[in-house]
């Protein structure tokens, strides 16, 4: 992947501050583990409270974490005064969300001034430590500027 150009040298601090304000990530036990220009990783342990009726991680939780990974990947490239909003995404569930922990990676595919496209992958890790791709996402993120009350 080509190096991404950042608009704000303090992008990592800005991304981490915004992530910390996102209560849903705390609710599901997700942590921001890697922040680089145009790429974000979020990790979380398995929790029975987040499963569907068959004991797999619920698709809504997978979708939520991938949306955040893709959104923050886009946000990392935005100007300091911008906020990010998801305007569309498509989720492909490839395998049941079964594992001891999960990794959600978002990467910018197409940067832009108004709309940024990002792709995400969700991996499940079992007891043997091997990663299994369980879902993919493509999302469109909007660069929001000049709106009162919208930060990050």
From TrEMBL:
Domain Thioesterase as annotated: residue spans: 54-126
E.C. number(s) listed in UniProt: 3.1.2.20
Pfam families (alphabetical): 4HBT (PF03061)
Keywords in alphabetical order: Hydrolase
InterPro entries: HotDog_dom_sf (IPR029069), PAAI_dom (IPR003736), Thioestr_dom (IPR006683)
EC primary class: hydrolase
Gene3D superfamilies xrefs: Hotdog Thioesterase
Record field: catalytic activity: a fatty acyl-CoA + H2O = a fatty acid + CoA + H(+); a medium-chain fatty acyl-CoA + H2O = a medium-chain fatty acid + CoA + H(+); a long-chain fatty acyl-CoA + H2O = a long-chain fatty acid + CoA + H(+)
Molecular function terms from GO: fatty acyl-CoA hydrolase activity
Record keyword Cytoplasm present: no
Classification via NCBIfam families: unchar_dom_1
Record family assignment: Belongs to the YigI thioesterase family.
Protein name stated in the entry: Medium/long-chain acyl-CoA thioesterase YigI
Species annotation: Aquibium oceanicum
């Amino acid at each position: 992947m080509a190096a991404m150009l950042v608009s704000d040298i303090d992008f990592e601090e800005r991304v981490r501050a915004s992530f910390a304000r996102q209560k849903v990530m705390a609710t599901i036990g997700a942590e921001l583990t890697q922040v680089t220009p145009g790429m974000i990783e979020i990790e979380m342990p398995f929790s029975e409270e987040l499963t569907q009726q068959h004991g797999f991680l619920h698709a809504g939780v997978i979708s939520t974490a991938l949306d955040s990974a893709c959104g923050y990947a886009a946000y990392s490239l935005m100007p300091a005064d911008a906020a990010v909003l998801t305007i569309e995404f498509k989720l492909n569930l490839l395998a049941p969300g079964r594992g001891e922990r999960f990794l959600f990676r978002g990467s910018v595919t197409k940067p832009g001034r108004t709309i940024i496209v990002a792709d995400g992958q969700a991996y499940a890790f079992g007891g043997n430590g091997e990663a299994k791709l369980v879902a993919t996402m493509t999302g469109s993120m909007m660069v929001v500027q000049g709106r009162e009350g919208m930060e990050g």
